[in-house]
Amino acid sequence: FDGGFLIGGQEFDAVASTCPWAIPYGVQLANNKQLPFMYVRQSKKSHGLKQQIEGIPIAGQRVLLFDYHMGESYAENASDALREKGVEVVEIRSVDIYSILKSRKLTGLKVPMIEDLISTGGSSATAVQDVRNNGATCNHCISIFNYGLNKAAEEFATLNPKCNVTSVLTYDTLLKEAEETEYINPEDSEVLAEWRADPFNWGERHGFPKVEK
């Protein structure tokens, strides 16, 4: 990948990507050119801040949009979301990488699995097994954050050989730090510890309807 030819005559002052496949390429170009970066989901999240765009779109920005996808593309959807924020999409760099990835052999490679978050662990354990099924050795999963749920431990226990899980930060460590720095009060700490002990039934006990997925 050489970002230079993408610029060719087109001026832009920010880089955006669809997710997840295009993000590394968008980040690389944004870092090289010291430009702002943002990524655009296919739709708004149904929880939290309910955002479709992560980053800071600014009206008047001229944006280069990376869209590296597996099969179906949602580049136009992403473009519409950016335009709603007043952003001008100067160019869309769209590539279906399915055939490229499928042609690459993992046999004999040692591949660590990198995750941002481990909650119930199902998707992470499945990803590890997928890599193994393609011939690679994948015995380590590294995450930024880990809730430390028993469900996740059970999911990883199904893997043979064992996959070692290492996390930069865990829920228990975060809670302890929040207590020691008095970021939360004792009452909040008690509630958070109670949730940690039984996360799947805590909401219903406190008046929130249980959502079956």
What does this 3D model show about the protein?
This protein has 213 residues and is an alpha/beta fold. The protein has two domains: 4-100, Rossmann fold; 105-205, Rossmann fold (3-Layer(aba) Sandwich), CATH 3.40.50. The chain is built from nine helices and eight strands. It has helices spanning 4-7, 23-33, 75-84, 98-102, 122-133, 150-157, 171-180, 186-197, 199-205; strands at 14-18, 37-40, 53-54, 62-69, 88-96, 113-118, 140-146, 164-170.
What's the topology here?
Layout: H1 4-7, E1 14-18, H2 23-33, E2 37-40, E3 53-54, E4 62-69, H3 75-84, E5 88-96, H4 98-102, E6 113-118, H5 122-133, E7 140-146, H6 150-157, E8 164-170, H7 171-180, H8 186-197, H9 199-205
Parallel strand pairs: 1-2, 1-4, 4-5, 6-7, 7-8
Antiparallel strand pairs: 2-3
Helix pairs in contact: 7-8, 8-9
What distinguishing features does this structure have?
alpha/beta, 8 strands, Rossmann fold, 213 residues, disordered N terminus, 2 domains, 9 helices, five-stranded mixed sheet
